[in-house]
Write a structure and sequence with these properties.
With 427 residues, this protein is α/β, with parallel strands linked by helices. It has helices at residues 7-15, 22-33, 39-52, 56-68, 96-104, 124-128, 140-149, 163-173, 181-194, 215-231, 253-264, 270-286, 294-299, 302-313, 344-356, 397-405; strands at 83-87, 110-114, 152-156, 199-206, 235-242, 250-251, 327-332, 337-342, 370-373, 380-381, 386-392, 409-412, 422-426. Helix 1 (7-15) runs parallel beside helix 3 (39-52) and helix 15 (344-356) runs antiparallel to helix 16 (397-405). The chain is globular, with a radius of gyration of 22 Å. The relative contact order is 0.14. Uracil binds at residues 169, 183-184, 187-188.
Amino acid sequence: MTEAFDAVDIIIAKRDKRELTTAEIEWLIDAFTRGFVVDEQMSAFAMAVLLNGMTRSEIRDMTLAMIASGERMSFEGLGKVTTDKHSTGGVGDKITLPLAPLVASFGVAVPQLSGRGLGHTGGTLDKLESIPGWRADVSPSDMRRQLADIGAVICAAGAGLAPADKKLYALRDTTGTVEAIPLIASSIMSKKIAEGTAALVLDVKFGEGAFMKDLDRARELARTMVDLGNDAGVATTALLTDMSVPLGLTIGNALEVRESVEVLAGGGPADVVELTVALAREMLASAGLPDADPAAALADGRAMDVWRRMIAAQGGDPEAELPVAAHQHTVTAESDGILTRQQALPFGIAAWRLGAGRARQGDAVSAGAGVELHAKPGDAVTAGQPLFTLHADDESRIARALDAVSGAWEIGSVAPSPTPLIAETIR
Ligand code: URA
């Protein structure tokens, strides 16, 4: 390739707040992917974007250039509409597990390419790998066959999708540039558009346990991603959802699978059911089924049938006992009252310290480790009643997890005013 631009000129342009051209962005991303633009230069560029932002057309160009850095999947000829969901990540967020088979039970295809967790947010693949025999790696031809036969696949994204994003994300992680909205939006949407889905529903979290701490920034991120998706021909909507308390009653891999199966059996915690049904409605509407009733498919076992077939197709035994950690430690209420506080982030960090998450890419995770909550904010509790149980294979981890949640819950006398789980829908 003829080197048409100089990386330093492009960095200076962004530093000085000039709008970049399509050709400049295409060149930068391609040259970075090939190693011609070096990490120091791309890091400086990422910092300039974090400080000065990008216009809508720059973000679109960046997304398209990252898609062009790798392969693009296509589900044409499948005979089913495809729809997918992406969450920006939260504590106890296991929604993909019941959601994919639920939506597929309506004859829609859900190709869900997922990742492993890093830090306090758990990865969908880590959760499913706690099911004995289940495999995350599915070849493109097997994926297509599973989508045609069963309708839902949750599997690992191949290395070929948006390789520029993989390289850039690793740099952002070590240079304080993860939080830039143009970079988050182009990172997420390049992978989702390259995946070839026709429709997409985004669950953009806000609150203390989320990437975006406040609602305004979450709204801006959601708006940016919805526009990017729609501009690229993917019917995209977003829900803005509260992540200030953990979602459901479990945080940790096998614990979250167990709770997901309860939801598929027509039970489970009210917040997990509410969000699963709301996201399913959006996905089904985007796939042309606005009148579908996902709550009924949870209640009558249709979604559970698809779950069993989806797990078995990837080598898993849906009837197998799930792993249980070797050690448990239960914390009880010291007084009568109402649980007034239960902060998502400290509980997520506790689950991570117990062994449910990894500190570095490639570390092993414990299938049974995590936190089981026995009460949610607003619940009345009596002295001696269990509040939560810590699960770990290695008993020495329990003390550090207790440190993490110290001060993260409170028993008071006045119930907190309820806040809606789903704050807004962005179309
Ligand atoms: N998830 C991604 O895939 N990319 C980001 O930039 C942030 C979260």
